[in-house]
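Intended use. Records like the one below are meant for learning the mapping from a protein sequence to its folded structure. Do not use them to infer anything beyond what is encoded.
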Amino acid sequence: MNKRRRVYEGKAKVLYEGPEPGTLIQHFKDDATAFNNKKHALIEGKGVLNNRISEYIFLKLGEIGVPTHFVRRLNMREQLIREVEIIPLEVVVRNVAAGSLATRLGIEEGKQLPRSLIEFYYKNDELGDPMVAEEHITAFAWATPPEIDEMMQLALRINDFLVGLFLGIGIRLIDFKIEFGRQWENEQMRIVLADEISPDCCRLWDAVTSDKLDKDRFRRDMGGVLEAYQEVARRLGVLTENPRPRGSGPVLVSSKPT
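Structure written out for the chain above:
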């Protein structure tokens, strides 16, 4: 690990130089963060679960023709991915009112939206990842109008697939955040799905009980974070060995009132 060149480190993942040009190794950490890193804990085993869940979902999306940066899983914590130029936007797809949408608009949490909504947020931790409109995106050249259209089309296609995938295992997909990148091959460029899809970036509720099976359990101090992630992995069929990653649960690193 320490012999590889570290390219980037985020809140939940580290990117290392890959074995071949144009590749990276994506390492999933056990860090859990919320409220723009004001709340931070270590949940031993979370990175292992996110790696397996994200691998499964990216493979399924690849099977239906969604272009992604994923190549293959290397081990319990790492994936080989293609190097892409990350577009500095978080694309959020909402199916049910929850989180900031419910707060901003005064909508009861859990209310089904009349249609799926797409929101864009500028990736900037110092600014708190502010919500932006298409006019901001084009004015500041974060993405072109055709790229925005492509991201929206892919986001809705991913949403349609994931809604069905999760519903089939008794889970409601409330909303999720994804990121896209530009992949260059000679002079040709295409938009591809990057980053990860896991309970870290999805709101997942049990379809019968509405129990939360995602990072909201950490945000809201509900406990049972690791167990919720394990349940998602179990239902997806990716938790077939070592049903409980070693660890006693969250280890508080720092916490500030929000």
